[in-house]
Amino acid sequence: xxxxGFTTTILHSDRNQSVEHGAVHKPMHxxxxxxxxxxxxxxxxxxxxxxxxxxxxxxxxxxxLEAKINQMEGGKGTVSFATGMAALSAIFTTLLRRGDHLxxxxxxxxxxxxLFGTLQELGVEITFVDATDSSQxxxxxxxxxxxxxxxxxxxxxxxxxxxxxxGGICREKGxxxxxxxxxxxxxxxxxxxxxxxxxxxxxxxxIGGHGNALGGAVTDTGLHxxxxxxxxxxxxxxxxxTGWGLTQIKKKGLRDMGGTLAAEPAHRIAVGAETLALRMAxxxxxxxxxxxxxxxxxxxxxxxxxxxxxxxxxxxxxxLFGSRFGGLLGVELADGVDCFDFLNRLRIVLMATHxxxxxxxxxxxxxxxxxxxxxxxxxxxxxxxxxxxVSVGIEDEADLLFDFDQALNxxxxx
Length: 414
Prior knowledge:
Layout: H1 6-11, H2 39-46, H3 60-73, E1 77-81, H4 84-95, E2 101-105, H5 110-121, E3 125-129, H6 134-140, E4 145-151, H7 163-173, E5 176-180, H8 185-188, E6 198-202, E7 216-220, H9 244-256, H10 263-273, H11 276-295, E8 300-304, H12 314-321, E9 328-333, H13 339-345, E10 350-351, E11 361-364, H14 374-381, E12 387-391, H15 397-413
Parallel strand pairs: 2-3, 2-4, 4-5, 5-6, 10-11
Antiparallel strand pairs: 1-7, 6-7, 8-9, 9-12, 11-12
Helix pairs in contact: 3-10, 4-5, 4-9, 11-15, 13-15
């Protein structure tokens, strides 16, 4: 039987769910509440029947988007949030309790690092390890360990965790395996293939793709059985136990904490998702060309990009991601090249704190998004003071190479 490809499936996702009036997109539903003619029906929805009650817990618009993300990830269920950080916060705060232990990659997004600081203040113990070496993950596991967390490609150092082996360790130990798939996107990689329990995507990035909406999502792969998890509340122990974790995330992390994705950004993200494969192919091609160009430039000391043969995890990335290496570069400038002077000379690339946009973006990582974590943590993460984070867009390749070349040459000439 023929199975449609990635883009075809996403393009026709809304229509296959019966869209009103023959529209090809699910319309926006901005209503805060949903009324029923029969009070018994209202009660049934509150008690678990499919339906809508109050927009904080979801709308037809967010449900349609969640179906798209779920199809992309091959999941058993997906819940959307207002931002990627809201999605991560929901995972950690609803599934972990005081006294629990989390093993995390030491190479994590700056805001995720800040969130972990909050969790530690609330009594969750966290051990940071070099997740490119799975033996460090195994060695860090304690009797009270409940969860392991890693990103697919780290931001901004581009380290690639030993995802498959870590998945095997989590399966062996019965641990919840959480993977942040933001930098790869479901087009490049499905974390379920390495045994992930939960997958987080920041929809603000490549999936939405146009820098015009914030959102996040948590997908349950169905690979973890929550029956033995003492942190699942009794009220949510209904139906197949493989779905209990996502139910708790939705009820506690979305309904109670209120990180709701509104209809308008959900609609923007859903439309943007239709071209994910096309955009990601261009992001990857441009990034590889730029990385190779900068690697040879006298104004650059080092380029961090998994597509380069000299990257420590190049072979692993090629095997995991099908020789597609993403759109993020870490660029360390040569001695004597001032990072601010260089950035100010760029003409096409925007100085902005975002990634995954159609436009190329750059910023001095140590002085901005990673400044708050301090010099010691930056050193642990391999973030040099001269490191420029570059989110490569979909501009014409020649224009990007020219822009970086003229900016670097201008700095070298003084």
